[in-house]
Write a structure and sequence with these properties.
Blueprint lengths: L12 E9 L2 E9 L4 E6 L6 E7 L11 H8 L7 E7 L7 H20 L7 E6 L24 H13 L4
Protein name: Proteasome assembly chaperone 3
InterPro entries: Psm_Assembly_Chaperone
Length: about 170
């Protein structure tokens, strides 16, 4: 005898929105596939750089853990280890934009791990932002310095909050 199986819901969870971030129209799409979550953030109407971000598990085992256990361990921890890989776009040390994109990817991966500790899917982030001049280095900078990451905190916070409102994990 064959048991009746209900057909699955649409296989991809999708949330699409638009908002104004730092005075710029920003489009967002968050998609939940079975093997990854995809976040697209753009102010330039393009996918831009693609980054894969995977936050490390805090436990030594691969067994699922209770969310409350992980939440209590993660309280106050804002720097979970995150593996980043540029899949498309600027290499990690090329521009101010790539520094900003790395910080954003780390923030999103850490938030995802803290909110859904049993969800081991990586996040693929497509990001193309119109970087405000205040974040750019002067072209006469003769040292190989990068902007102070704390300068990005307001922008990163706004974008991460926007993703949190439309998350699929």
């Amino acid at each position: 005898m064959i048991a009746a199986i209900d057909p699955p819901a649409f296989p991809v969870s999708v949330n699409i929105a638009a908002a104004v971030v730092n005075g710029k129209h920003t489009d967002i799409a968050v998609l939940g596939f079975s093997n990854c979550a995809v976040v697209l953030l753009t102010q330039l109407q393009s996918i831009g750089s693609l980054i894969q971000a995977i936050a490390s598990r805090m436990t030594g085992s691969t067994e699922p853990v209770e969310a409350e256990q992980v939440a209590s361990r993660l309280a106050g921890i804002s720097d979970l280890p995150v593996d980043l890989k540029f899949l498309l776009g600027n290499p990690p040390t090329a521009t101010t934009a790539s520094s900003l994109y790395q910080i954003l990817a780390i923030e999103l991966a850490q938030r995802k791990r803290q909110l859904s500790p049993n969800d081991a899917r990586p996040i693929i982030i497509g990001v193309a932002l119109d970087i405000p001049r205040v974040y750019k280095l002067s072209s006469t900078s003769d040292d190989d310095s990068v902007p102070d990451p704390s300068a990005f905190s307001a922008l990163i916070g706004s974008l991460a909050t926007l993703v949190d409102k439309h998350k699929v994990w």
